[in-house]
Amino acid sequence: MADTPVIGIIGLGNMGMPMATNLVQAGYEVYGFDVNAKAELEFAAVGGKTGLTVAEVVQKTDVILTSLPSPDIVESVFTGLDGILEHARAGQTVVDTSTVTPQLNERLARASQAKGIGYLAAPVSGGVVGAKNRTLTIMVGGPKELYDSVYPVFMALGQNIFHVGERVDSGTAVKLINNLLIGFYTSAVSEGVALAKQMGLDLDLLFDILNVSYGQSRIYERNYKSFIAPNDFAPHFSLNLLLKDLRIAQEMAQQSGLSLPITAELLAIYEQSQEAGFGEQDMAALYAYICQSQSAVQS
């Protein structure tokens, strides 16, 4: 790999855009692709190179990052017609920062290895704020030697970089457990704040008190300060995406032989909120769903 690799990034969404921007600001030559032409224009405005197909991005770069919303889309971009693996060359490195299934990590690693291409699964945590501020946590699974070669790129994206293990799905397992906990925290915050509202408590004062008590959590701070208090649920991380990750986490548990009975009930709550039309809103909108459900019961 070149001392300063040319980087391609596939997916310029809520996470991919700030990551790609930070790579440009760190001095890398970066080619970006997104199906949304507006996103490409935005990236071009900050110095990114756009207007190419996936195949052309792959052909011009040394390290290719993907930041995509679902396992199906990731698999299609990697293995589909005119996808990454069709046009990649031996010696390139591909890094998937998406949250997908461990089985997909393994399939893509095998397919990449067959072509002499390095593959790392490196899901991230920290949300849009972390992506913008370069404070992401990055959980990497795959060969340590390959991880070391990409480490400078990771350092341009985040603060907390972990090589979880040689198993390509090891970082994904950690990320899924992380998001399983986020699902529980978001539910707890939603029900707790809804209960406080029902009891006529000052919600800002409640936050101040619990923020210096054992009820404090980063998710409480995130969901309350950025979404519930201003009553604005424009998505940073949508409820649909959280539900996707919770389903994958449950599937991972089942395939390992572990039953997660409380998770099954948690999934039902998120599925109900999705069916009620909250899926495209931020995950913090679970609070709005609970309040709406309570109002419907009382009426």
TrEMBL record:
Q: Any idea where the 6-phosphogluconate dehydrogenase NADP-binding domain is?
A: 7-165
Q: Can you tell me which residues form the catalytic site?
A: K175
Q: Could you tell me which species this protein originates from?
A: Brevibacillus agri
Q: Does the keyword ATP-binding apply?
A: no
- Record keywords, A-Z: NAD, Oxidoreductase
> Which PANTHER family does this UniProt record tie to the protein?
3-HYDROXYISOBUTYRATE DEHYDROGENASE, MITOCHONDRIAL, 3-HYDROXYISOBUTYRATE DEHYDROGENASE-RELATED
Could you say which protein family the record assigns here?
Belongs to the HIBADH-related family.
- Enumerate the spans annotated as 3-hydroxyisobutyrate dehydrogenase-like NAD-binding domain: 170-289
Q: Short name of one Pfam family for this protein?
A: NAD_binding_11
In which domain of life is the source organism classified? Bacteria
Determine if Flavoprotein is one of this entry's keywords: no
Query: Molecular function terms in GO for this entry?
Result: NAD binding; NADP binding; oxidoreductase activity, acting on the CH-OH group of donors, NAD or NADP as acceptor
Under the heading InterPro entries, the entry gives: 3-OH-isobutyrate_DH-rel_CS, 6-PGluconate_DH-like_C_sf, 6PGD_dom2, 6PGDH_NADP-bd, HIBADH-like_NADP-bd, HIBADH-related, NAD(P)-bd_dom_sf
Full protein name: 3-hydroxyisobutyrate dehydrogenase
Query: Which GO annotations describe the biological process of this protein?
Result: organic acid catabolic process
Q: Where are the transmembrane segments?
A: none
Q: Which SUPFAM superfamilies match?
A: 6-phosphogluconate dehydrogenase C-terminal domain-like, NAD(P)-binding Rossmann-fold domains
